[in-house]
Amino acid sequence: MTGLAGKTLFITGASRGIGLAIALRAARDGANVAIAAKTAEPHPKLEGTIFTAAAEIEAAGGKALPLTVDVREEAQVAQALAQTAEKFGGVDIVVNNASAIALGGSQQIDMKRFDLMHQVNARGSYMTTKLAFPYLSKAGNPHVLMLAPPLDMKEKWFAPHTAYSMAKFGMSLAVLGLAGEFRQAGIAVNALWPRTTIATAAVNNLLGGEKLMHASRTPEIMADAAYAIFCSPSRETTGNFFIDDLVLSQHGVRDFDVYRVDPSSPLAPDFFVPDDTPIPEGVSLKALA
Hints:
Structural class: alpha/beta
Number of helices: 10
Order of helices and strands: EHEHEHEHEHHEHHHEH
Strand order of the largest sheet: 3-2-1-4-5-6-7
Strand content: 5-15%
Helix content: 40-55%
Shape: globular
Number of strands: 7
């Protein structure tokens, strides 16, 4: 493949952040993007709605379909996929980007929040992919991408925030299983995860504020990595747990400083990246104190 012109992407949580960045990268090729997200009205603490995202996608050269979707609701997801296929003639790529996060131990996280994370992250991603199968099976180079971590089963990734880790690793387990289940149909199912924190609303509002934002990379590194995956043959690229800068280095990228929010700040590693993950040549990482 040489690009995503005419391809149709169904992206959950695409009104802002990484989801929107992936949408805009595809839009620059002339792709169609269904924005399946909850934010139809402006949020006091979060920038962007499905309608502002649609405007940005159209301005970037793509076609947009804003859809109000709660990924916990089966009927809403099914209807959104059907609307997408009806408008654009099919669905080629599904990006399970919608995610809920709450960090804390078992004594801090109440069961309502536990349920939310599992319903959005693990169940929502599994269900969206399940419901998308009939459309993807008719596509020429179908891909499913989960924004999910490598399956590195270490205590340190669970003990500080067991509930959140279980929900995110649930997405990873779905990748492992669905890649095998969908292989005969030629549908690629992969995971993509950032090596460093990414400058999103979640990082700014929930994790580390302005200091961590400065130590992060921009969402565009995830968008460019996702684009490279989507342009790969689906029958040859499935069941992988990709790290963003390793994907790009394998596609010839050498300058990663362009993705840094603040080149003067050391980069902050993200959760869940295995200790033995190779580092591309020229990339220097140092955890924040």
